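Private note to self, pasted from the team thread so I don't lose it. Backbone tokens:
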């Protein structure tokens, strides 16, 4: 089969799950949680992420963030498919089969976006629930096999149009599932019309946004300081400094 050239939408490119296994279990008591999970403050594409799938009961697996279709010749293809647009899931070769059969829940407690300032520079911000609770992104997963029998589990975050809060920064946002839709998203018999409805933007009044440190710009940086509200240091006013005092 010839390699398909598909440009996959990129929007949600960093997120957080700053809760350990115990805290996540408290948020989702009916879901299995790997006791080895540790807080993560700067999850980036191609890194491992935890997600729930149904097999047939819900279980947690580790996926590479960036969906690799089974027909792809190179697993590096996944770096181009970290996001999947809700509006075109049923059209794209990479996503139409997973949308029907391989849906997953990707737990998070915030995501980053970059706001363009008046001077053209971009400053990172973090969207989170007002109660700081965890939530789940609607996701898709796939498995890719190499010729030697190795397998890669990979996933993508579905994105949708932005709600009123996120729209101030970016026209799109991750598809955050409402609490009543979490289990239905995994159920294999859920109707397509219901799945489509679940991907509508979550209410803006449940979320808030914080400006955060530019340190989050570097994908390898981790630490709780990344999610703390941050204010840029004041610029010195010309004439305030006297080199000869």
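Design output:
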């Amino acid at each position: 089969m010839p390699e398909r050239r598909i440009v996959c939408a990129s929007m949600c490119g960093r997120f957080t799950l700053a809760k350990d296994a115990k805290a996540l279990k408290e948020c989702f008591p009916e879901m299995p949680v790997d006791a080895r999970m540790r807080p993560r403050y700067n999850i980036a594409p191609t890194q491992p992420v935890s997600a729930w799938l149904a097999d047939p009961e819900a279980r947690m697996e580790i996926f590479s963030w960036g969906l690799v279709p089974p027909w792809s010749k190179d697993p590096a293809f996944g770096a181009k498919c970290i996001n999947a647009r809700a509006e075109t899931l049923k059209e794209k070769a990479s996503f139409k089969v997973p949308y029907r059969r391989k849906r997953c829940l990707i737990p998070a407690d915030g995501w980053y976006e970059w706001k363009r300032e008046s001077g053209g520079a971009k400053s990172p911000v973090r969207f989170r629930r007002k109660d700081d609770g965890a939530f789940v992104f609607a996701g898709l997963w796939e498995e890719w096999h190499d010729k030697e029998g190795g397998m890669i589990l990979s996933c993508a975050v579905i994105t949708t149009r932005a709600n009123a809060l996120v729209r101030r920064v970016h026209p799109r946002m991750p598809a955050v599932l409402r609490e009543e839709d979490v289990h239905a998203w995994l159920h294999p018999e859920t109707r397509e019309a219901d799945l489509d409805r679940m991907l509508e933007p979550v209410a803006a009044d449940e979320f808030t946004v914080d400006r955060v440190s530019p340190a989050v710009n570097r994908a390898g940086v981790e630490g709780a300081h990344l999610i703390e509200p941050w204010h840029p240091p004041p610029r010195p006013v010309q004439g305030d400094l006297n080199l000869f005092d």
